Amino acid sequence: MCGIFSIFLKNPAAAGGSELFRYGGRTESLRELAFRQSSKQRHRGPDYTGLVVDMDAGLVMVQERLSVLCVKTGSQPFVSEDGTVLLAANGEIYNYRQMAEVVNGVRKAGDGEYVPRSDCDVIIAYYERFGAEKLMETIRGMFAFVLYDKKTDHVLVARDPIGIIPLYEGTDSEGNVWFASEMKCLVEKCSEVKVFPPGHMYYGKRHKLEPKSYYKPQWMFEIPRAQADLEQLRVALEAAVVSHLQCDVPMGALLSGGLDSSLIASIATKVMRKRHGLDYRLKTYSVGLIGGPDFEYSKMVSDYIGSDHTEVHFTIDEGLNYIREVIQHVETYDITTVRCSIPLLLLSRFIKSEGIKMILSGEGADELFGGYLYFYQAPNPEEFHWETVKRVKNLHFSDCLRANKATAAVGLELRVPFLDTDFVNHSMSIRPEDRMPQTKVNGTVRSMEKYVLRQAFTNDYLPSEVLWRQKEQFSDGVGYSWIDTITEYAASHVSDEDFAAASDRYPINPPSTKEAFYYRQIFEELFPHDSCARTVTRWVPRTDWGCSADPSGRKQTVHLRRK
């Protein structure tokens, strides 16, 4: 995982080729300004800081690098061979080898073989030969990047289809355009900050940048009718895991003991043993309060797949200490995201201390297959489908935001095979009747949430107790007293008088509980602009389906409480 930062001056000619320019009523060094502002996200890339400034073009690019792939040759920003294309990229391009082969297939006579400096370097090579549109049709991975073409004076900015990698855009008082992986780099300098939308690209002159969607799968616009093919589903997920295992540094996997992370760890183990022999043991990690319900199941999976497993325990007091830090890192006031990010940040610190740089995780399956327990209340297949579409499209506001930023806070890269673009398209193209949980037949539950996914992996992947374990949301699975206590703790910091005025004080997304008010209060101190508040979308179940508004899975009627 890395961090990228860039500024495009509205009027490059005014600088006269000098790194000094007029900004905020005074003379500023563009190089120093960029280096200073990007340092606010340097935790994302602790291995190297690269900076390119080009005052003739009126731009600066910075990359904070976490070296995971092509460690010796992948430092950025990249500059093309002829010096006309500049690139700062964050993420992993999983099909970069295939893209490099295509580039080599169209070499001109006399050209040498193209050897990519890293996975992201292929973005320049493919763009130069095929253009922006074809690049975005072909690329597969998690990414956000900013590219500048001196020949055309065009800017290309793009973000992956799901929004696994964060990207923000800002405009300052002088009309200069800023981009950064984290909002904290922009908030002090930009009068307007917004989320760069997933699945979109900017391509054109810097003063005419309009977002354009390049990701338009049919399932976003119509209800699919294809029946589930269990063999195809299994093969598609296995292929996604294989693609996500390209790595040149020590790696591991999160293992909560729930279905999703357990499947990823099991598949990864099988793949790595084919490559490295039967003695290979994947390093896996779980986190929770002592006695938390996840530990029983994570140990069960670890024993079954033979992983090198570590349980990381934390106390409630330790977790409460991190509320403000998590809001600062994750840049949200959404209740469930804050609740979940604290255990993940604590776990990430431990994992990084063991020398691990990349970790696999199971985010995304609940959105694709309607795994949250409130989906039992879906009134029909059509509404179920559109709710899963909404959840997938909003992942960058919640689970992807948490998964990326809580791990990047300590310089750890998290990968999510369930959100591989091809797997997302395969899963979301299955008719909703096959993806939705069956509620009740003659008073008994006929099947479970994510039933079709479970059915696809019945053959020697997981112990049956885990394969058929009910969904337990991460913040619940670490220990039921965690949510109960953090809710009470947050509420104790808000008076009845202050809460009564919540809508007046916070007209944008007004908090509906004292816990939400407390998180919002901290967020406003860190990110005071109204535009920052608008970057947050709250995760709330469908109350119009008769569901509890509290995001905890334990609040849904079908939850089976375990001690």
Describe this structure in words.
- The protein is of the alpha+beta class.
- It folds into two domains: 3-216, Aminohydrolase, N-terminal nucleophile (Ntn) domain (Glutamine Phosphoribosylpyrophosphate, subunit 1, domain 1, 4-Layer Sandwich), CATH 3.60.20; 226-555, HUPs (Rossmann fold), CATH 3.40.50.620.
- Helices cover 36% and strands 17% of the residues.
- The protein has 22 helices and 19 strands.
- The strands form four sheets. Strands 4-5-1-11-10-12 form a six-stranded antiparallel sheet, covered by helices on one side.
- Helix 8 packs across helix 9 and helix 9 packs parallel to helix 12.
- The protein is globular.
- The model has no long low-confidence stretch (mean pLDDT 93).
- Keywords: Amino-acid biosynthesis, Asparagine biosynthesis, ATP-binding, Glutamine amidotransferase, Ligase, Nucleotide-binding.
- ATP binds at residues 254, 287, 361-362.
- The record marks 363 as: Important for beta-aspartyl-AMP intermediate formation.
